[in-house]
Each structure stands twice: as C-alpha cells, then as structure tokens.
Amino acid sequence: MDTFFNPRSVAVIGASNSPFNLGATICRCMNEYSKWDGTVYAVNRKGEDVFGCKGCRAVTDIEGDVDLAVIITPAGVVPDFVEQCAAKGIRRIIIESSGFSEGGEEGRALQRRIDETAREHGIRVMGPNCLGVLNAANGFSCFYGVQPDNHHEFLGSEGGSVSFIIQSGGIVVIVLESFLMDVVKASKIVSIGNKSDIDEADMLEYFEQDDSTQVVAMYLENIKHGRKFIETARKMKKPVLVFKVGRTSEGARAAMSHTAGMANNDAVFDMACRQAGVIRVNAISELHSLPKMFTHMPPLKGRRIAVFTNSGAFGGITADLLVQSGLEMARLSKDTQEKLSRTGQIFNASNPIDLGPAISMQTFLEIFDILLSSDEVDGLLPVPSLWHPMVIEAIVELVKKCHHYGKPAAIYTPNAVHKTVNYRSKYQVPLFESPEEAVRALKVSYQNTLNLAMKQGLDGLHALLPGGGEKTCAGMG
Amino acid sequence: MDTFFNPRSVAVIGASNSPFNLGATICRCMNEYSKWDGTVYAVNRKGEDVFGCKGCRAVTDIEGDVDLAVIITPAGVVPDFVEQCAAKGIRRIIIESSGFSEGGEEGRALQRRIDETAREHGIRVMGPNCLGVLNAANGFSCFYGVQPDNHHEFLGSEGGSVSFIIQSGGIVVIVLESFLMDVVKASKIVSIGNKSDIDEADMLEYFEQDDSTQVVAMYLENIKHGRKFIETARKMKKPVLVFKVGRTSEGARAAMSHTAGMANNDAVFDMACRQAGVIRVNAISELHSLPKMFTHMPPLKGRRIAVFTNSGAFGGITADLLVQSGLEMARLSKDTQEKLSRTGQIFNASNPIDLGPAISMQTFLEIFDILLSSDEVDGLLPVPSLWHPMVIEAIVELVKKCHHYGKPAAIYTPNAVHKTVNYRSKYQVPLFESPEEAVRALKVSYQNTLNLAMKQGLDGLHALLPGGGEKTCAGMG
Q1: Exposed, middle or buried, A58 (CB in 10 Å: 0-12/13-18/19+)?
Q2: Is B414 near chain A, with CB under 8 Å?
Q3: Are A296 and A427 in contact (CB under 8 A)?
Q4: Which residues from B are below 8 Å from A170, CB to CB?
Q5: Cβ-based contacts of A177 with chain B (< 8 Å)
Q6: What are the Cα distances from residue A119, in Å, to A3, A115, B320?
Q7: Is the CB of residue A312 less than 8 Å away from at least one CB of chain B?
Q8: Residue B407 in 3-state DSSP?
Q9: pLDDT by residue (tens digit) across A398-448?
Q10: Contacts of residue B253 in chain A, CB cutoff 8 Å?
C-alpha cells in the first residue's frame, strides 16, 4: 500500500496539452509545484511532453520502471490501459475516470474487464471515480483541480497527523480548505471512489501502521464488506471518526447514484460502528473540527466536566449541552469551591464557575491548577471571552497544563468566529467555534476512551470509570 | 415604550471620571461617537462633566427635562436614585447595576424598594442587571463596553430589520459581533436583565407595532408570565425566534443564578412556544444566522424542496437533512426532468439534481426558472461550489428570481467559511455556512408559515399545504 503514497515514478495516462485536460493538471502538480521529486511520464495519443513530464504513446513505450499508474481517460479505453499497465509490470493503479459501476450496465461491463485483468496480474486498484492520494509529508499528490496557490498551503509544511479516507472528490476539497483555518493538518488523504478493489478497511489497516497518522477521519457513502470493516476497525488503537451519508432512504438513494454502492441499512451501520469502536460524527464539518481534540489534548477519561466562563449565559448553555450529550457537570466539594473563592475574582464557585469580567493571568493559572488537579474533575470546558490579549496567553498556558495533568479542555471563546480562527492559527491552540462543537469534542474524546476500553475487555472499562462505572457505552449514542 | 429608544435627553447616574467607570463609557458612546444628538447629563458625587456631558450632583439638580434615566451605580444606592428620578418627574428608567434579585435576600429587599417607588409614580423600569437598549436607526445606545471602533460598524449605517430581546449582556456582544460578518443587521436590541417590570411580552408587543422591525429574535433564561407571553406572541404577525436556556435541570439551575428567574419546566415552555406560534431555535448562533431567511427570501409555503449541486456527496447529505427535518425531497415529473436535461449540462435530472462541474451562467438561469416555476417545487436548496466568480453572480440572479416567483432558496456554497462570509457581505446575498444551517433555515421558514396559518385558523393551514395537508405542525418539532 505504501507505493501509492511514496512512488518513485508515475505514469499519468490521459495527460495531454488539450485545453482543460485534467491529466495535465496532475502532471503540473507533481512536477512543478510540489516538493515530491519522483519521475512523471505523460501517456497520450501524440506522445507529447506535458508540463515537463516526458510524453509516450503507450505505457509499454516508457523506458524506466513505473511504480504507479494514474489513469484519467474516458471510461471506454480504461480497460485497455489497465492491460498495458499489466504488460509493463505496473502493480499499483489509481483510476480517476468516472463512468463505471455508478453509470449503468455499460459501465459495469467495463469495470468487470478491469477487475479481471487486475486479479490475473496481482494489481491493486484504487477507484475508479476518485481523486487518488495526497501525502503531505513528501508532497506527493495525484489530485486534479487543486490550484497552485493553495497547493503550497495544503502541502507546503511538514504535514499533520490526521489521515482522511473520503469517498467523494467534493468532500476532499472541503477538507483541504479547512486546513487553511485550523490547527489540524492532514498526514495523508485518500479518495477511494467506487472501491472496486481497495476499500475503507484496507486503508484503515494501512493507517493503523502508518507512523505519521494519529487519527483517521472517514466520509463514506457505503460500506462494502461489513464484516471486514468491523474486524479491521476493532483492531485499531487510533481514534476513527466516520460520517456516513444515507441516514434516510432518500439520502441513500442519492448516494447510490454518486459512487455506486449498495445502500446499507443505517441502523445496521450504526450497530457496526458500535461493534467496531468507531465514532460516528453528525456533520461533514466534524471530520475536520473534532480531530484536534485528539491531536492537541490528552483523552477525556471520565464524564465529569467543570465549566468556567465570564458570561453567565454560557454557564447555562453549556450545562444543558453537557447533560444532553451524556456527560456530567462535575460536583465540586466545599473544599474545592473555597480554593476557587480564595483566588479572589470569582462570582460563583460552584460549577458552572462564573468568573468576574476582568480576571488576571495569575488567577486564570490558579483556577486551571485547582480544577485540573482535583479528583472531582475529569475535564474542562472553559468559555472565556477574548476581550484582552492576555486571555489567549492564558489559553496557551492552559494547553500546557492539560498535558501536564493528563486531562483535556475543550475551549470555546464566545467572540465572532473570525477572531477564533485568527487566534487559533496564530497561537496554534485547539479553539472550537461554538459551544456545541466544544461539547461534541469532549463527548467524542470520552467515547474513544470507552471504545478503547471495550476493545481491551470490560475490566479495562471499569478501571477507566471512577464513580461512573454503572453507565456503559450504550448511553453515549 | 418608544421613549426608551428615542429619548431627547438622558441622565446617566453614576457616570464619573474615575478609572474604569462604566457610566463614563456610556456618556462617551452617547456624546462622542454615535449620531444620536440628544442631551446627556452625568450625575455623580462631584457634579463633574464626563466626556462633554454636563455634570450634576443630583438628578433634581438638572435644569432641563429628562426623558430617560440610566442608572449604573452600586446596587445599594439605586433605590435612592430611583426616588430622585421620581421627584424630577422621570418616568423611564434603565437600571444596569447588578446585585438585586439574583444576589440573595439583601438584593431582593433593594429590588422591592425600587418596585414600590416605580409603582407609586407610574415609572416603567428596564432591568436591573442589564445593558439597556440600542437603536440602530437613530444611533441611540446605552450599552457600556462597546468599543468606539465597533460602534460605527454596528450603528453607522441606517440599521437593519431584526430586533433582539436578550436576557444576557454576554449574548448581546455575540449578536453585535455577528453583524460584522452577515447580511443581517439589527433594528433594535434590548437587554432586559432581571425583568423587574418590563418583560419579554412587553417588548414583543412594542416590536409588533414597530415599523422598522421585520423579525424578532430572543434569548431567554426564563419566562416571567407564561399566560401573558403566549397571548402576546399569538397576536404577532412577525416571525419570532427564541433560544431558551434550561433544557436540563443543570442548565436551569445555572441560569437562575445568572438573572434570577424562576426555572421553567422545559416541556411546558416548549408547549407554550407551540401555542404561541413562536419558533424555538437550537443554538445561540441560530438567533443571528436564521433571520436572514425571513428578511432576504420569500416564505416557504410547502415542504417540497429541490436540491441541486455540483458535488454528488451533497445530494445525499442534504436529502438526509431535509427528510430528517420533516421536509421532503420534491418528486420531479418526467416533463420537468426532460426540461432540466435539455439545458445540456446535467448529470442527473432527478432530485437531487447533479450539475456538471462547469455549468454556465445561462444554464444556471434556465435551471432556476424551470424549478421555481414548477408546481412540483415549493423551495430550493442550491449547493453550488464557488469555483468561479460567475457562480456568485448567478446566486445574485437567483435571489431576484426567488422574489419574482415567491419561493425561497436556502443557499449553501461548500467552500471554506471565509469565502462564504466574504461573498455574503460583498454581494449582500443570504448564504448559509453549512448544509445543516441551510436546512434549518428552510424548516423555520416553513414552520413560520404553519404558525401563521394556525393563528388564522385551520382553514388557512389547509389552503397552504398543497398535497401536504395530512401532516400538521406537530411533525415540525
């Protein structure tokens, strides 16, 4: 599987100098504005060079070795090119063209020819009807349509630690654009399309072994092999988030015409996620907003949350959200409340803790220590207004203290989103954009703790739940 | 009530030149950087002028008439100042100070003294524990803490058409900041605090008569007089949105310590909203994101929605969201599908309609006309990527066509939020920031149609539901 992400040489089949040629944008991306330094060949009717990539009329005309073929031609000629690849000895193919099993009987016949050739020669196929792969660490990408300007922003740095498995090109673009505004960056992205061969379970298995992947996030329109999916996911120690379309029959019908899967019964899928220890998310946006809770914070190991805010309204709002999500408002003992009151700037020391309007840095730090060191508290939900630059500096310290004490905080700053986004990027702290998102982050962190415990057996589960052992993961739906 | 929003002369009691004096920021706001041109007096111990406002030692020392008093002093001296106001003949008072019924028995005793004086002299009181009022049309505001820079952005223009009733200062700030990024602007904002006299029902009654208010949005921590609230809201023809904290007992407890209300049973409140024809929203953000569906689009009069998108994934995602919200995917006849196919750039003409990646302006306009003129469709959910400036120009035309045909579109452009926000401000079109938000906008528009029909009697309801009359508003929860 690693060859897909780290090839030394690639043939882009269908790349020419015709106007609007998608293969040409792939050649350009690989050769001109990524740091990946492998060799690229362009296969087209005229055998012409494309953006500096050597041109050939047929795959078999290429002189050097080819690790990977990327096919982006009309569907009708794809089976012939797959045969050329087989003859050339290529064992990894990404088919980006559409018009196969999602496109009626004619498309299904083409797909069968491809499957037969691949099986016969031991070729692994990604797609068809996909964008292929992107590897932020080495800069390799065969996505078409990514603008040069953005490419550097997406891939220019060292890459992040979240890998994405996405069954839709459109969603890939949304995830890419999210990186411009968040602390989360991708390690690898794979767009798996119709999944004629490589499916989500194969990718999960790969990402579990991949050192640069800490979290996996998936967008799926269907599950191909339910049993394989559950068995693979159950073995994973890394958090797996999934958004699946098709909760209703209308949604499932729409998805079928898109990437040609069998519609799965949604209740069955839901059950499969629970058995597999996979976290189902409620919106596309959660695929990029929630992973930072795993990459930038320790895990939430219990459900008792302490809220503190300088807006009394958010005390009530977050209490509602926490309780509705299955978490709990931590009950603070008289001793803890007295410690908080002694900081001198607290209106209300019971949870939710109401801070005065003008808390000093020193008081913030004292509150963090009191709450994070308390065995009455498993995690924090801080809701401080960004009224002064000192507040963001206090948040930077809070993130350090969370790691020190091994307890997480899901931080929401109730100001206009543009401030949150700017501060988040500038200070590289995991700020959430709404109280709903912050509570969801705490919930999925705790759900992952329960999932890991389930995978380790029930003994592990009870050990993880001081005072909360009577409830099980069933309550975390 | 109008005197609160259009006073000619105001006394700010407690405004002095001490450092961090909140009354001084109110004087400055009124006198220096708003366009409101009334007279302001500053009442303080030394009788000193504050930011150009004439100083007096007592309210009774003021020579001219005073329409409105704004009190922002320690709670203990407020009753004495209320008596001074009564002696001076002032009949409208805003008490911004806190420390009354939300602050224990001592505070409740102070509140009782104020109530007695007010009753005796026929004085209407807003607050205590509030920010008072803001009127965008004339620039009058007694909010403290609003920065001069922002004041112009919030109030500089002519003002908008949404009025807000908000029982929390912190939420006022969030709503104010939302105007920086959206097409919705405030007409009037009122922060009602502990509601010792003027409550949400009084304000609803005023805003129903107020010509510059089209929509009312409320944040409430409690309802003071349930019967009065229901009766007033039922008489309203303008849409009313409400977010109420306290869905859980923990949330209600937190709200009680904030603005001192009785906790209301949430199920009872929910029932009251249904009876009153008030739309309950699910998040603070919906108070500022949803009103544009009323101010910038015609109402949704049926539940049949046509989706069109150039991202196949969003066809499925939006179909799920629409059906889960109680709306329906419109069933397009063969005739309509053929008309759509004849535009020449459609992948899939059944609903959700899958557009090719590079639709022309002309094709966009043809699709809008076909769908909006069809009696199979009540409203649109367009999900076009902003891949080219032409797309936003097509959206500008779509808004015009929606008004022409009298059917709404909730538009979501699946690109990074910063693009949506920029385009929305630049072109003044009502773009939503997520597919969830767009579907919520359609749902609340339809819910308002059902509410109006309920208020007009069931005959009206059936007339509004072509083919959908078997379902009632109970399904729209």
Answers
A1: middle
A2: yes
A3: no
A4: 310-314, 385, 414
A5: 415-416
A6: 18, 6, 37
A7: yes
A8: coil
A9: 999 999 999 999 999 987 677 888 899 899 999 999 999 999 999 999 999
A10: 319
Q: Per the structure block, which two tokens stand in for A75?
A: 């569907």
d(CA B254, CA B277) in angstroms, rounded, equals 27
The CA distance from A445 to B365, in Å, is 46
φ/ψ of residue B383, rounded to 5: -130, 70
Note the pLDDT tens digit of each residue in B226-246.
889 999 999 999 999 999 998
Give the one of A168, A421, A435 whose C-beta lies nearest to B312's C-beta.
Answer: A168
Residues 324-353, chain B, touching A (beta carbon < 8 A): 324, 329, 348, 352
Cα of B282 to nearest chain A Cα, Å: 10
The DSSP bridge partners found for residue A40 are A10
CA angle A255/B433/A248 to nearest 5° reads 25
- Interatomic CA distance for residues A141 and A221, integer angstroms: 23
Output the CA–CA distances (angstroms, integers) from residue B86 to A46, A400, B300, in the order listed.
94, 56, 50
pLDDT digits (tens, 9 = 90+) for B93-127: 999 998 887 768 889 999 999 999 999 999 999 99
pTM exceeds 0.80 for this model:
yes
Vertex A365: Cα angle to A361 and A371 (nearest 5)? 145
Nearest to A438 by CA among A387, A400, A395, A374: A395
Nearest CA-CA partner of A322 in A351, A299, A294: A351
Chain B residues lying within 8 Å of A436, measured CB to CB: 283
Distance CA A378, CA A50 (A): 57
Instruction: Report helix angle B312-325 to A169-178, nearest 10.
Output: 90
Low-confidence residues in chain A, pLDDT < 50: 466-477
